[in-house]
Amino acid sequence: MTLTVRDLHVAFETRGGRVNALRGVNLSVAPGETLGIVGESGSGKSVTAQAIMGLIDLPGRIEAGSITWNGKSLLEGDGYGTSVWGREISMIFQDPMTSLNPLMTIGAQICEVLTQHLGMTAEQARERAVDLLAAVGISGPRRRVDQYPHEFSGGMRQRAMIAMSIACNPKVLIADEPTTALDVTVQAQILDLLAELQSGLGLAIILITHDLGTVAGLCQRVAVMYSGRIVESQSVDAIFERPQHPYTQGLLRSTPRLDEPATRLLSIEGTPPSLMQADDGCAFRKRCPIAADACKEMPPLVTEGAVQIACHFPGRPAWQARQAG
Amino acid sequence: MVQLWAFAVDMVTLDFGDSLWQRRPAVEVVFERLPNTLLLIAASLAFAILVAIPLGAIAALRPGGFLDRLTMSIGLIGLATPQFFLGLVFIMVFAVQLKWLPTSGFGTAAHLVLPALTLAITPLARFTLMVRSSMIEELNQPYVRTARAKGMGRARILRVHTLRNILVPFMNLSAWELIVALSGYTVVVETVFAWPGLGHTAVQAIQRGDLFLMQAIVFTIAFMTVFITLLIDVASKLIDPRIKLN
After folding, report:
1. Per the domain annotation, does A133 fall within a domain?
2. Does residue B35 have a pLDDT over 90?
């Protein structure tokens, strides 16, 4: 029961040229595991999730690589995908305001999954939908099930989305920035709900976010993406303790801390490289303080025990220890 | 004041006076011809709607694809073709050459086919283009992505998810086509195919200066227009619960 992504390349043909959104992504998720994918905008986090769910549309194209579930490819278009998506692997999205069909009742949208994948009758599906709404903490589910999305608040809609995604007891839940569009107190509630479901249902969760705090709270393992590749992947404790890749170090360094009276916020100098140009070297080398000649060659993703890293100088501190002021 | 009151009472009791031309109550003429026109419009709009929705939806699946371009081209030609010309071509091909259908007249179902088809072409083209463009827009909505992530097939997404979302604007366009057809647009087709409908009668009433008959026709159409608009508003509310009726 593992989801495996191997050497995934995704490119978008646009009027301005080819955008290489993913350039060799490798990851796998085992049952019960929580993987966080972090990275800045445009690093390919969401594209990875969309590729897994078969949501890459023209002008986008999966150029190379494989995505397998239980050893079988999801990319063949032989109907295996549609039998897995929504049933064994499901996804919740960033914006619960627009991700629900405005003209279908919440109940109808949940029941749809149940009748399609589990062959339930309308009455069975409705009963289960009521139970699901109760399970995700919506009060008065019997009344709520017949309401439309516009009658729900943002947090409630995300709860309804979660109810929909866990309807068939999936093995993997992909959450693409599930709390970005919500206000802070609701964010915490949704994350608590996800953690609860994870332990209750033995669900594997792939949490996509740019918020390191969210990752620290919920995930066991973290993959850091930069410019369409995973540059570092290891356990959440280790990554906060001993970040190996210079980018991860920079990312953690630029996170404001409450316990230090920093007068100004630190950032990583420069901007990420354009995804349009084909570049053979390490994508981070132009911003990396310890870049050397060796970095003109692409560092492979090396696995050592539980640690995966793509850097020629792993573990070397890229910045001096944090100075006050 | 007294005159106005008398006029209003006449309206409500459908007493429009006698037709100068036919020498019988105008309302009788209207009620005799109206069903014929309604039959013609109903057949042609039903045909246009039933064909346009799947056609537009299929075209929308791959914008810029072969089927899309074909549908668009035929749609534009359909919009640009004058009805009287199309009607005559149909008569030439299906009635004169192939002898499948009668050239004109009224009575059997076979008589209905050609006029209904001719009348259907313009709305059909307009509906198809409209369904296509709204479907393309809806298919890019995030809720469609959600439906796909739930493992729903394309057919189901089109049939259940996006169709519902384009239904309100589509109904408004259909209602508009219906009103246009009612308010005399059928006259060309009725003339070409000698169909005894209301549009044809209206033109004759004008030619003969038959004021009372004309008044009866205009009143009937105005009443139906209001009624249709009201009906569409109520139906829109049923489909989209976010719409507020005042």
Report:
1. no
2. no
Confidence of residue A262 (pLDDT cuts 50, 70, 90): low
Query: Could you tell me the residue ranges of all domains in chain B?
Result: 17-239
Domain that holds residue A50: 3-103+148-303
Q: CB-CB: which of B149, B161, B241 is closest to A101?
A: B161
Does any CB of chain B come closer than 8 Å to the CB of residue A161?
A: yes
The correct answer on CATH 3.30.70.141 for the domain covering B17-239 is no
**Torsions phi, psi for A177 (to 5 deg):** 45, 60
In tens, the pLDDT along B127-183 reads: 999 999 999 999 888 899 899 888 888 888 888 899 999 999 999 999 988 988 887
Q: Is B64 on the interface with A (CB under 8 A)?
A: no
CATH code for the domain of A165: 3.40.50.300
Is the pLDDT confidence value at B110 over 80? no
Are residues B205 and B218 in contact, defined by beta-carbon separation less than 8 angstroms? no
Q: What are the structure tokens assigned to A108, written together? A: 């109808």
Tell me the DSSP string of B125-146.
HHHHHHHHHHHHHHHTSHHHHH
Q: β-strand A89-92 against A72-73: which pairing, if any?
A: unpaired
- Cα(A32)–Cα(A28) distance, integer angstroms: 12
- Residues of A with CB below 8 A from B143's CB? 98-102
